Amino acid sequence: MKAKVDQDTCIGCGLCPSIAPDVFEMKDDGKAHVIANPVPAGSEDAAKEAEGSCPVNAIEVE
């Protein structure tokens, strides 16, 4: 399973790293970035939850 954040769409709300800290983090540019690809075992559900929680649909997990 891989995760991706569309940097042009991301508004930097911080939800994804709060839901899936093993997969996402906020960087100095104020946007979320994927820090683990593939998504670590045991973090798949959290990554999918972060995808569904993104207010601007900037996350894709497949």
From TrEMBL:
UniProt protein name: Ferredoxin
Organism annotation: Caloramator australicus RC3
Nucleotidyltransferase listed as a keyword: no
InterPro entries the UniProt entry points to: 3Fe4S_ferredoxin (IPR001080), 4Fe4S_Fe-S-bd (IPR017896), Fe-S_cluster_ET (IPR051269)
Pfam families on file: Fer4_13
Keywords for this protein: Electron transport, Iron, Iron-sulfur, Metal-binding, Transport
Matching PANTHER family: FERREDOXIN
Source superkingdom: Bacteria
4Fe-4S ferredoxin-type domain span: 1-29
Primary role: Ferredoxins are iron-sulfur proteins that transfer electrons in a wide variety of metabolic reactions.
GO molecular function: electron transfer activity; iron ion binding; iron-sulfur cluster binding
